[in-house]
Amino acid sequence: HEAILKTVLGDFYSQDKHYGSAYLGDQRFDSDATVDVISPNDGQHLLSISHAKPDVIQQVIASAKAEFYHWRSVPAPQRGELVRLFADKARTAKHQLATIISLEAGKPFQESLGEVQELIDVCDFAVGLSRQLYGLTIATERPNHRMMEQWHPIGPVVIITAFNFPMAVWGWNAAISLICGNPIIWKPSSQTPLCGLACHQLLLSAIKEFGANPELSSIVFGEKPQVEQLVDHKDIALVSATGSCAMGRAVNCRVAARMGRTLLELGGNNAMIVCPSADLELAIRAITFSALGTSGQRCTTLRRLIVHSSLKHQVLTKLEAIYKTVSIGDPFDSSNLMGPLVNQQAIDTMKASINTAISQGGKLITGGQQISNLDNKGKSEHGFYITPAIIDIDPSAEIVQQETFAPLLYVHSYDSLEQALAIQNGVSQGLSSAIFTKDMMEAEIFVSARGSDCGLVNVNIGTSGAEIGGAFGGEKDTGGGRESGSDAWKAYMRRMTNTINYGSELPLAQGISFDM
Ligand code: UN1
C-alpha cells in the first residue's frame, strides 16, 4: 500500500509516517504533540498526525476568506470546470483511493470502490449544476418594476466529516461548495487523515491545472478545540457537519450563538417495516446489506426491523442463518462481506448495548462475539472484528432509542400498520426508513404525510445506499440538513431578492399612497 500512498499523496507523502497538523493549499504545518492512527484491519500503527495550533487555524481561515473575494467572481460554469478536472483525477485514481479508504476505515474494498464512485458521481452532478444555479423571476404588483431572485456565493465553508464515509461526504460538500463559489476548509475524522490528504492532493493538482489559488482548499487535523475554533469564527459562512447527534448539537449551538449557518447530517436510527405481502427474499437481501454493510457503521444502517407478527419467526430464522455464516475479515479479501469495526471502543460500545438490551428484556438471537484470531494469514489477528448481532426486543425498551454505531439489529413485531408506523417514528432521529410491501395502499401511506417522518423514505429497497441525485439528510435529531443532490446547493449560497424600477414613478407596494 505504501506505493499507492506515494503516488496519490505526491509531495504530501511522508516516508517516516509522520504527517502534519494542517495543510493550507500545499503548505504543510506541524505541531509537537502527535496522535497515532491505528488500522482497524490489523491493529497496526498506520501513521501519526498532529493537531493544528490556533494561529495556524487563524491563518487557514484568513486565507480562505481572502480567496473567497476572488473565487466568488469566477463564473460558475468555470468553477464547474475545476470540479470536472478533479473528477477526472478521481476516476483515474479510483482503485488507489478505495485502497486508502479500506486501509484507514476498514471498509470492504468493494464498498470502498462504491464510495469513490459516489465521490465521482457528486462531482459530475456539481459540474452540471454549475450551469443551473437558477433564480426565479417573480411577478411584481407594481408597474414598470421587475422582481428577481439571485443566488450568490456565501463564503468559506467548514466541512466536518466522519470516518465511515471519509471521501464521499467531503465530496458532497466540496464539489457543491466549489461550484457555488466558496473556498473549503476540511476537518476530516482523525481516523482517516490520509483519505483527507489524498482528496486534498488530487484537488490541489486540479486547482493548479485550472490556474486557481491553492488556498481554495485546506485541511485541518484536530479534535474538539480545533473544531470549536473553526466553527466559532465569524468568517466561516457555513459549517457542514456530519457525525453524531451529540457533536451536531454542540456545533449547532455554537454557530447559532453567532448567527452563523449550519448544515447538519447526524445520527440515524433507521427502521424497516416488513409487511405480510412483502417479497421476503428481496427483503432479506435488503436487510442484510442495510444492516451489515460497512459493518453497521453507516448513518443509514438498518438498526430496527419491524416485522409483521405472522412473519417474525420466518424472518428471524432466515436472518440468524445469514448472520451466523457471513464471512468477516480483512476488507481487502473479496471473500469477506464484513470488515472490522473502527476501533476497540466501537466493539466495547456494541457489547455494552447488547448487555443493556438484555437487561431491558431483549433476547440475543445471535452475535456479539469479538473475533480475536481471525485468519491463518496472521494478518487480522488484532483487528477489531465482531460477529453481527440480532436482538429480539420490545420497541418500548430504552436502548432502542439509541444509535449504536455497530452491526446490531433490533427486531420488533407489529400487527397493524398504524402500530408499525408509531414504532418507526417513535425515536428521536429521523434519517432513513423503508417498507417492504406489495400492497399499494401501504406503500403510499408510508410515503404520505402521515407515514414515515424521515428524510429518506424507501419502498422495497433497504435504508442505506442512497444515490447522490437526491437530497440526503433527515429530520429531528438528525439535524434537518440536506446535502448532495436535488436543490441542496441552495444551502451553500445566499439568496438575494432584487426589485428594479425602470419607470419614472415611485409606486409603493401594498397600495400605500399619501395625498401630498
Ligand atoms: C453516511 O453514512 O454518513 O446512503 C453516508 C448511503 C451512502 C451515504 C452514507 N450513500 O448509505
UniProtKB/TrEMBL annotation:
InterPro entries reported in the protein's UniProt record: Ald_DH/histidinol_DH, Ald_DH_C, Ald_DH_CS_GLU, Ald_DH_N, Aldehyde_DH_dom, ALDH7A1-like
Q: Name one Pfam family in it.
A: Aldedh
* Catalytic site positions: 265
Query: Which SUPFAM superfamilies would you find in this protein's record?
Result: ALDH-like
What EC number is given for this enzyme? Answer: 1.2.1.3
Q: Give the enzyme's main class according to its UniProt record, as a single word.
A: oxidoreductase
- A GO MF term: aldehyde dehydrogenase (NAD+) activity
- Enumerate the spans annotated as Aldehyde dehydrogenase domain: 33-495
**Mind listing the UniProt keywords for this protein, alphabetically?**
NAD, Oxidoreductase
> Per its UniProt entry, which superkingdom is the organism in?
Bacteria
**Subunit structure and binding partners:** Homotetramer.
Per the record, the similarity remark reads: Belongs to the aldehyde dehydrogenase family.
Protein name in the entry: aldehyde dehydrogenase (NAD(+))
Q: Which species does this protein come from?
A: Moritella marina ATCC 15381
